[in-house]
Design a protein that fits this description.
The chain is about 35% helix and about 25% strand. It contains four helices and five strands. The chain has a five-stranded antiparallel β-sheet, covered by helices on one side. The radius of gyration is 16 Å and the shape is globular.
Length: about 150
């Protein structure tokens, strides 16, 4: 089984809490540990905030999130001018802005950027999930319907 959500959102700060709450509710209902949910919420917030601040002239963006087995996969896609993450400068210590990519890199198990020059950017984030004892998530999300600890490798 796989759980997925996808939303096309206006490039507006008010859209960020909506997708955050939807994803957190899904993860909470599956029994994902609080700390992992917090990490995912912060990664998602940073990715969406970067779109809102920088993805001009785009007026919308798409967020999709999929939970499969013990992983959460998030894609944030904009239609702005794109960017090259290798060309971004590291922020000064104590800087209030410019730390979003550092935060995402620190929290994600895997992060990938695809730059579609003059046609937007895609940020892919991946996070391994941990579940609370007795949570339904491990049983429901395992590919064969069994707990991941009993699934063949």
């Amino acid at each position: 089984m796989e759980a997925s959500i996808a939303l096309r959102l206006p490039r507006d700060a008010a859209s960020v809490p909506l997708i955050r709450q939807m994803l957190d509710g899904t993860l909470r209902s599956l029994g994902v540990e609080h700390q992992i949910r917090d990490d995912i919420e912060l990664m998602l917030t940073e990715a969406c905030s970067n779109v809102i601040r920088h993805a001009e002239p785009s007026d919308e963006y798409t967020v999709s999130a999929t939970v499969h087995d013990d992983r959460c996969y998030i894609r944030v896609v904009d239609t702005g001018d794109g960017f090259d993450p290798a060309e971004l400068k590291e922020p000064e210590p104590g800087a209030e802005h410019g730390r979003g990519l550092q935060i995402m890199r620190a929290l994600a198990d895997d992060i990938r950027f695809t730059n579609k020059k003059e046609n937007g950017a895609v940020v892919c984030l991946e996070k391994r999930l941990r579940f609370m004892p007795g949570a339904a998530g491990p049983h429901l999300m395992a590919s064969d319907g069994r707990s991941p600890s009993h699934a063949p490798r």
